[in-house]
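FAQ: What does a multi-protein file look like?

Like this. Sequence, then tokens, then the next protein.
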Amino acid sequence: MAHIASINLSERKGVRKMPVGDAPQVVLVDDGLENDAHAGKWHRQVSFLAEASIAKARDMGLEVGPGDFAENFTTEGIDLLDLPLGTQLRLGKDVLVEISQIGKVCHTRCAIYHLAGDCIFPREGIFGVVLRGGVVSAGDAIEVVKRGDGTCTHTPPEALAEVEAARKAGTL
């Protein structure tokens, strides 16, 4: 069963997020996780990274875990990279998130990149906008409610163009 393995928060951008354990977390509609630095009125309100992606980094010799790539939700049992833009995910009983971006361009290199010479999040992390808020906890189910068509009305065209250009240039 696909589920949330860890929920991770940070008070400011540009740092690793800290796992919150079993504590329930509030997800605000059109905003993101309450008390998280990345929440706000934009198209990358919450972020996801698969535990399998973190395991790849560990295989490279890094001592990393949930939150170390600044993802809000560490997941298990779901192939995030198989989900097109516009896919809607239910987290727990109530929260509904639409995938708004796959990957991201890093304009500055993070600590993980400097340690390993690479960072998986720009290629394997995904982002979403919160369509319906609620409360979630680690262990809650993740369900694909609607598979997207590769588009998301919440994502600015220039953000998609930037990611696509980086992929074509081989920098992502």
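And here is the next protein:
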Amino acid sequence: MTTFSLMQWLILLGAALLVGISKTALPGLVSIAVAMFAAVLPAKASTGSILLLLLVGDAVATVTYFRHVDWELLHKIFPPVVVGVALGYLFLAHVSDSNLQKTIGWLILFLCALGGRVQLAQFFPARSLSGPESCSPLFQKVVSTLAGVTAGFTTMAANAGGPVISLYFLWSKFNVKRFLGTTAWFFFLVNLTKFPFSVAAGAISATSFTYFLPLAFCTLLGTFWGRALANKIPQRIFDPIVFALSVISGVYLVV
């Protein structure tokens, strides 16, 4: 098994736990987990390891929210997502670890800015973006294409496509269960698509599986803990804390 110090193991196990919680309760925690992995592992290896854990969390989330999926929207947005994933693969395959780490940091900060727009829209719904019903079919197509390509690229390069998709689903006027169900299946399908690209880019290798089992256990634990946590802590209290920690994690990687 790959040798880590006690502190490094604690960071990785904690990050794996956050991945699980993010899948069933608080998506913003993924940004923190990404930064924690990048602080211990080389940037490409951290991206591949996070992907493996995301697939574990996806398995639980898709079963939990199976009855609340908008399959029509997924069918519409998935082709541009594949284009974005391919672009992210080309970027991932040719960038150095140090540059990738800074890129992850900047992506987190950029996506935090987008995530802040989502949070504001939750508190000021009257000021949120107009929904697709008030837009022309051409504009709807442009928005869905841009959202898909951007989400595919950011999730391939840094496992950080959540805020982009959250904005798009918010614009689509999803209720809570439809949002959770469609998000769960969207990322399950996207992460499956990313898997062979990540192997080809060297982000996932045999070494990735030498420390996978204990981390996967923490991710599974996090998915069940997240479901319980979501019923006890008000979202409007917890979200700003997660948002602030995400900004701090992005700054840490950039500097």
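Q: Is there any per-entry metadata?
A: Some entries carry free-text notes. For the entry above: Residues 123-129 have pLDDT under 50 and may be disordered.
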